[in-house]
Amino acid sequence: MDIFAVFCYTVNGDAMNTFQDNYFDFRLQGELNLHYCGNREGSLDHKYVHRQAAYLLTYVVAGEACLTVNGKELPLSAGDVYVLFPESMASYVTAPGVPWSIRWVTLTGTQLEELLPMLGFTPETPIVKAAAPSKVEQLLQELFSKTVKADLRSKIAAMALLYELLSCLGPSSPSLENTAIDDAVRYISRHYHEPITIHALAERAYLNSNYFSKLFTAQVGTTPQQFITYIRMEKAKELLRYTELTVGEVAATVGYSDALYFSRVFKRYTGMAPSAFRSK
Q: Domain spanning 6-169: which superfamily?
């Protein structure tokens, strides 16, 4: 029988009511075992200290933080996936006043020692930018819903989702072009509040604009402009939900100089006007 323990605590956390963690007792002994699946939504000024005796895979839905692993400081932002390895000493502190939302799974198994480095995760480089963030978030949400139930069918479905999640994180064919697209995803995720054009992104990647757009769509699963809109709208939803900024201020914060145009885009994206979304 596998025995492991996870020790963690929260300091100055304000969002225990938004913390959910499902224990999952269904294992393929020695290969790949899923133990916990959880999420945290909109925590402010959150600090976390973790001593891992298993693998913790976490996806950052929203927010920014400084992750310290074995004494090394690493920045975290929306779209990042990070893995904490067994026995690693780790902690993070979120950016002041910025809502922090994450999804995670806790894993053990002999497959992980070989599999995780193939996906780009090592104790020295534990962070990978998700190439298809919406897909990763969707799979983790589905995984969480499956682990709520205890029936055999749900447990088998959860393990299938876990394998799909891991396959989604891995590069299909590493190349300089794939690296360029990864860099573009990272750039958009961190500079969404600035003017961003497809031409400028293509120039950063030293690629023709049309070719860059085709590569981006093939690798990420959405066009560059759709991905820019996705990042901006998700950030706007956070700001409308957790701050008192006006609609115009939210628009400017996520990269729109015209509040009316922002409102039209937001309604197209969510089906609701910004004011209606805030009051729901």
A: Regulatory protein AraC (2.60.120.280)
